[in-house]
Every structure is written in C-alpha cells, then in structure tokens.
Design goal:
CATH topology of the domain at 29-164 and 197-271 and 281-303: Serine Threonine Protein Phosphatase 5, Tetratricopeptide repeat
Strand content: under 5%
Helix content: 55-70%
Distance between the termini: 25 Å
CATH superfamily of the domain at 29-164 and 197-271 and 281-303: Tetratricopeptide repeat domain
Structural class: mainly alpha
CATH architecture of the domain at 29-164 and 197-271 and 281-303: Alpha Horseshoe
CATH class of the domain at 29-164 and 197-271 and 281-303: Mainly Alpha
Number of strands: 0
Oligomer: single chain
Mean pLDDT: 81
Number of helices: 16
Largest sheet: none
C-alpha cells in the first residue's frame, strides 16, 4: 500500500509539474499579450500578393477619387513589396496635395528608416510627434528612440548585429532598455523601471505588427526588454524565443551564435517546473518553439492561398479578408483569464483536486482496515 501511495504522490507531482511548465509560459503571455503571436508571425497580416493587388487597386482609385488614405495605402503597399523608394515618392506627392498631416510624416519617416536614411527618418518622425505625440500608443516616440539607439551601434555602414552582446544575469537592464533608462536619467528623472520597459515593449510590438515582425533588430530589442523588467516579473521564455527568431533571420554564423547565447543565458534562472532544481534547457524550449513556428506558418499559408484565390476571382480582397479573418489568432491553447489553459483546468484547480485526492487516501485505508477487522470478528 505504501508503494501505491508513493506512486499516487509521484503522479500528482508529475501532473502539476507538467501543468506548471505550460502555465509559466502562459503567465508570461498574460503579462505580454500578443507577444508570442508577433514573434512567430501568427497575427492578422497580408501576403505579398495582396500588396501587389493593393498597388493596382489604389492607383485606379486615386485616378478617380483621391484621398489621403489611399496615398497611405499605396505607399505602404510599395514598402511591403520592397519598393521603398517608390513609397517615399508617393508620400512626397501626398504631402504636396495634403500638407501637414501626421500620417504623412510618420510614414515618410518609417520609409526613410527602412531605406537606411536614419537622419531623414528622424526628422520626419519628429515632425509627426509635434503634430500628434500620443498616436499609436506612443509608438513613434519609441521608434525615434530605437533609431537613436541604432545610431550609437553603427559601424561605418549598417548597424552591427547583435546590437548588444550583453547577456542577462537575472536582474540587469540590457541593450535598448539600458539605453532608455540612461536617457531618462540624463534628463534628471528617476524612471520607474517596470513602467519604462512596459511602454517600450508596447512600442516595439507595434513596430513588429505594422512593420517587419521578423526583423532581427526588432526581435533583439524585444528580447532585451522582456528580460530586463526584473527577475520576478520578466519573461525569460518569450525573450529566449525572440533571440532564437533573431538568430534564424540573421546571416553569419557568429551573429547567429551570439543570439543563441543570449537565449541560453536568459534561461539560466528558469527551472522546468515549480520547486524543481533542473533548469529549462534551450534545446527543450527550441523544440516547442519550432512547433509554434510551424503552427504559425501553416496558419499564414491559408491566408496566402485565400488571397491568391480572391485575386484570381476578381473580388474585393480587402473586404473578403475582413469577413474571413475577423478574429485575432492565438498560438497554441487559448489562455483563460485566470491563467489556465484551454483545457479548462487551471493550476490551482488541479492542485486542489490532487490535494483532496491525496487527503482521501488515509480515509480509504482506514475504511479498508475497519472492514478487514469486522470480517475477522465474524
């Protein structure tokens, strides 16, 4: 019977450890919603074919009923298809027709930055901030700060990757986060670390969603921010995924290895389960991340196919997309509000159930002994 009790206890602990592993990532995702979706690419976005269609569609509509929004759509479509110089030209034409608009300066600044013209980009972003400093939840101010950070990391040409080879020691502020802290301190302020990091994370996630989600620069600074919030409230597993994704999108073995080292170091203090001493290994996390990337890739492939079919059918691709994909996707099981997963079982519920079950074992043993004693007396 003692063996049965040990087996039950072991099963209970094993069950809770498994759920804790998943719940740890779930809690990170609750603190930083949509982060995993943006890292993997499983979010509402269009295919290259859509943007080629939009170029033709916008050009035709501008000929008959031009609006500032159509110029914005056309320019973004050019940028998304790699024709950044053409995107700049469209914004300059829009500026001549509709001067002084926030969206013109914000887009033009972004296009200049994508083209590597950081100084021109900063000029336009600053003009946009004068017009509307709080647009897009302050995304432009963080875009401005990021460009300034890149300028401090530039060699003779492009910014060198990784931007920072500093690794996490469990409680340090790294890379872009450290740069932001230094700016605030230099202005005579004592910044709240968590608030500053959280605002920057929102800004970077916005750049990923509306810019290039697979940019190694954005992935690196996101990883640095996620692991810089503080030991008890950071997101080590999400940060490791961001660094791994940056390594996949980078050229050169030394750069790839540097990002993998950053991923491995930020897991140094991440255990596999609650109360366990063995740490979560990078290889284990990477296997799960590969599954998540595969899920995101398969989901995006559906968009690519559907948009291609809609274009061939001659329908309004944008409206068809809105009807078909009206709900934001989620990677893996859906996370409930209380931290549980889509299995419908939260960690506290499972723990309570195991506790009740284990507490019932002594009563069961006592009942069996009583029956055996009664049988002997008969």
């Amino acid at each position: 019977m003692l063996g049965v009790l040990i087996a039950v206890l072991s099963a209970g602990v094993s069950c809770m450890a498994c759920l804790w592993d998943r719940d740890t990532l779930a809690m990170e995702r609750q603190r930083f919603p949509t982060t995993l979706e943006l890292i993997t690419g499983k979010f509402l976005r269009h295919s290259p074919a859509f943007y080629r269609w939009r170029i033709s569609d916008c050009q035709e509509r501008i000929e008959t009923e031009p609006t500032p929004e159509l110029f914005d759509d056309l320019a973004v479509a050019y940028d998304k298809t790699g024709a950044t110089e053409e995107a700049v030209r469209v914004m300059e034409a829009k500026s001549a027709l509709y001067p002084g608009l926030y969206s013109t300066h914000a887009n033009l600044g972004t296009f200049h930055i994508h083209a590597g013209s950081f100084d021109l980009g900063l000029e336009e972003i600053e003009k946009a901030l004068v017009i509307n400093p709080n647009a897009h939840f302050g995304r432009e101010i963080h875009q401005k700060r990021l460009v300034e950070y890149l300028q401090t990391r530039r060699g003779k040409g492009d910014a060198l990757l990784p931007l920072s080879e500093e690794v996490s020691n469990g409680n340090n502020v790294m890379g872009f986060g450290a740069f932001l802290m230094s700016l605030q301190s230099g202005e005579g302020n004592v910044p709240d670390r968590a608030d500053l990091i959280d605002e920057a994370i929102v800004g970077v996630l916005g750049m990923m969603k509306f810019g290039n989600h697979d940019s190694p620069v954005l992935l690196e600074v996101l990883g640095d921010l996620l692991v810089s919030r503080g030991f008890d409230s950071d997101a080590k597993q999400l940060a490791a995924r961001a660094y791994l994704a940056a390594s996949y999108e980078s050229a050169g073995r030394s750069v790839q290895q540097a990002y993998r080292s950053k991923a491995e170091e930020c897991l140094k203090f991440q255990t596999r389960s609650s109360g366990a001493k063995d740490k979560l290994m990078l290889a284990q996390l990477e296997m799960q991340f590969q599954d998540e990337l595969k899920e995101a890739s398969d989901w995006y492939a559906v968009i690519v196919t559907k948009e291609k079919d809609w274009i061939a059918e001659g329908v309004d691709v944008e409206k068809s997309f809105e009807v078909e994909f009206y709900e934001a996707p989620v990677v893996g099981p859906v996370i409930a509000a209380g931290g549980g997963l889509s299995l419908g079982i939260s960690l506290p519920t499972v723990a309570a159930a195991v506790f009740v079950f284990l507490c019932g074992i002594p009563a069961l043993l006592w009942q069996r002994r009583r029956r055996a004693s009664a049988a002997a007396e008969e």
